[in-house]
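Exercise 7. Predict the joint structure of the components listed below.
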Amino acid sequence: MLPLLTVIISFLGALVVGLIPDKHLRATRWIALITASAGLATAITATLQYVLPQGGFQSVLAQAWIPSIGIQFKTGVDGISLTLLLLTGLIAVCGVLFSWDIDHRTNTFFAFFLALIGGVYGVFLSLDLVLLFVFYEIAIVPKYFLIAIWGSTRREYAAMKLVLYSFTSSALVLFGLIALYFGSDLHTFDITQLMTPNTYSETFQIVVFPVVFLGFAVLAGMWPFHTWAPTGHVAAPTAASMLLAGVVMKLGAYGCLRIAIGLLPIGATHWAPVIAWIAVINILYGALIALVQNDFKFVIGYSSVSHMGFVLLGLATLNATGLNGAVLQMFSHGVIGALLFAIVGGSIYRRTHTRQLAEFDRLIDRMPAIAWIFIVAGLASMGLPGFTGFIAELNVLVGAWQAQNSLHVGVLIVAGLGIIATFAYTLVKIHEAFFRRSPAADNPEHPAPSHYPRLTCPEIIALTLLIATTLGVGLFPGRLITLINTGLAPILIALSTGHVLP
Amino acid sequence: MPEFSSILWIGLIPIFPLIAAAVIALILFVKPKWHRAAIGAALLGLGISVVISFYAFKLSLSNHTQQTANFTWLQVGNTTVDFGVVLDPLSASMLAMVTLIAFLIFFYSGNYMAEDPNCARFFCYLSLFAAGMLGLVVSNSLILLFMCWEIVGLASYLLIGFWFHKPAAAAAAKKAFITTRIGDLGLFVGMLWAFKETGTLLFYNNGNGLLEDAKLTMLAHLPEPLFGISAIAGISTLIFIGAVGKSGQVPLHVWLPDAMEGPTPVSALIHAATMVAAGVFLVARCYPLFQADVVALNIVAWVGGLTALIAGLIAIGQNDFKRILAYSTVSQLGLMMLGLGLGGVAIGMFHLLGHAFFKALLFLAAGSIIHGCHGEQDIRKLGGVWRSMPVTSACYLVGALALCAVPIPPFSGFFSKDEILLASYNTNPWLFTIAALASLCTSFYMARQVFYVFFGEYRGHEHPHESPWQITGPLVILALFAAFFGGTAKYLGILEYLDADFAAEHEAPVAAIISIAVAVGGLLIGWLVYGRRKIEADATDTLEKATPALFHFLQHRAYFDELYAATVGKLWSWLAFFADLFDAALLVVSELAIYFVRMASNTFAFHTDRVVIDQWSFDGICNGLRQSGFLTSRAQNGFLPAYLRAIALGAVILGLLFWWSLI
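Solution:
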């Protein structure tokens, strides 16, 4: 019951905030912050309550919903969903803090924001395919409004593009879910029941897996269906891009892992080499494009695409190490991606009112604190030891190495090139943004101030939270790894038993 | 889930100075002028560590058995990297010594550095150092130890170069960093080798640790990899190379005297009492590895012995107050290594602990004198300090007598040095001779320094003055330790405490007599050469007058730096030249590669992504859908004849289909 509170709290908060009259700015913000913090607190409590040695799904709540076709309202948590619940809670709190200065339709903004959070929590908690799909759809709607109303660069186009991608891919997912229902003789949508081996025949798995996987992977930013992500991220207001990069892309990856791989292990084994190639294309392609972007936020947008490639590569390894790395990378990129968007889209843009790198003139002198924080975040993004990204990418790569009999060695080489490209674009963009003298800055009509305003209190709290998380977990990842491992255990069993089937 | 056993709290000891360092960094960020807050934070952080350390020490005294707490740091695939902490006599005694001396030196620095505009930064580095050093001591894992080892090296680098506007300081910092890094490379390779063979880097882990019997036997039975040197000797020697770098042993000792460019409290804490002793501690920690093959221990003993003698000789020719002490430190560290190599953990560590107190004292007192004499460090320009700075001078004399191992009344150094000489007398006459000669040098150069600095007339300008109590206080406390630590500790059985298997060396009256004779004899010769006559300002050194060639040889530090410049440096220049050529070729290749990457990136970004995927595919499909909407909407235009035409056409098609189905 306790984990479900996250969903209830968020939706209730959305309702309350939405009903507050527009003029009560402070009340709106504080209620939103309290709601988000309560969600995070619930997620933390749920994690602490989780009995690790026992493993499996815990705090399961099952209620018949439409019994005639076996649809239940069934929720519960395991190691993987807890990791992502924690991530969602954290990003929600930081997102609210970074929306502190929104004064245009504040109540509506936070209502949509919290509704989106609620939907995301719901997806991670659902143990019934239909319920999961319902939450998945709920999460799409607020995204549209968040971007279309409060967004910037080409916001209507971006919002519509994102929604079209989301709905088209979810149509694939829906088709896949129905196939999963009719493909088994169990007449249920219950994920835990469908996970039992021998539910689906080999041919069925090989045919249905790509449909379900593709459906979810579009939302994870898989190449060549990734372009919604940079456009959407860039157009979205700061908090929404933090959520999009931090959590929404994880919805897709979570679906890939939980449903596509979890329910169709033989299909996964069959398609893994293809996924691995697409994953490394993601890594390298995203990094290369980030290298030549002129808009700072687009750099971060494409870096998200590149980082999600590691998640996909981890999924394609189909072994304990790689899958663990995939989930770790979901967490890691959630935190680091949100951090980067917060700095670039929030802190810097708020002060410079431009995101064009060509117009940045030695910002290291003009906003030293922000610049240093971005450099730290950039190091985290490059996967330096001590940050979560290192542990995650290391696990993914070791997993890929171990999976050599199924994955081509070229995959590793391209992934390595991708890492080099990641270093390249991060350092190049740090240089361009903070250390380079800009000829455009000598404009006598609009001289850049020698010092931009200091970081505000909400900004400091949010940035500290995010950096502390990536550093803390990066230095002591042991607990999180154990937690994820318990969640992966049943999937790994399904994968290993899947191999011996004819 | 990590299994936390009870002893994990000693891991907190390094955490508090680390927090202090972070807090001071924050202060630096916000209010760089808040010196008092920075000093307070540093003292508070270390103070908590002192309390915990002494509690740990007390526990260890009542229970000599080793207690460990390990946890998995990270797991990649089937490989785990474990961290852990260990409380045993070795770490407990080091903890007590390091925290106590560090606290005194922090306190001293609070006054000594108060005038410096970057005082807060100084305490930030100092706290970082303390965190690394204490982490190194409590670590139960070679990898954790190595990380702390590097933190300590970094802090040392930052502190040597603290006055980086002085070119000498900047150069010394660089030299220290690079030289110790050569040693660290050895340690790193040794660590990887050990990990490859045993799969663990934990020292103690319920019988599965690197230093426990199961793994030691396993290592000992490995085939000999090269030149008949066993794997275990190879690993230990590589680890020892790390110690050689850190502890300033020949041939990597050249950085330590230059490191005196740092502020004096740094010299006292890092380059005398604690960090340089870390190498000795590392050998003591890994002693079971060294013990497994006598080759490794012999290397340790010989390197130590040679270092002791060479550094002792060079010290005689130095004129810089702090450099003499620096070479003395190198020499004493050599003696510790010798003690480890021939006598065992207890003897080496006993000298380390005693030496820490009197060497810290000597440096702090030297700092007080340099401060009191307005920054003068050349002993030829000092003199007669005794009269104007009585407290400091008295403390200094106690430290000097302790260093010289004077037997009556028994000062601290006497007991530990006696053990080392005894151990070498019983095992290796050559090394015994070397050690005895080194001790003779020690007494002689200390006598020279003392007579130059404290007696006769003051030869500098501006009159010296005594330091305030914040500086003399720590001196007095350290002087008490320097005077009484050795005797008391030996009486209380420190040797048996440090090493459970310690067997007292076979007593040899000849060794004892020689030990006393060299200590007193050195002082006596020193008095004969420097003490009898009043030293005139600008006079040539008495020894220089007697044997100018030898003296110049020693004064130029036995030409080690020149030797390195002529050999390693030359080699380096040649390598650099070829590397440069190679580099030019690489540059062309990499420029081309970068050009292609840019081309690819541009193509991907502005053609594949923007045109093919977005404009053609996505926008194309969307537009197609919209166009089809126009088409269908045109059909619904409300124009009746058009509807009738469509109905007629439909009827015809239906009719045709019907007919077709019939035939």
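Discussion. Strands of chain A lie at 58-66, 71-77.
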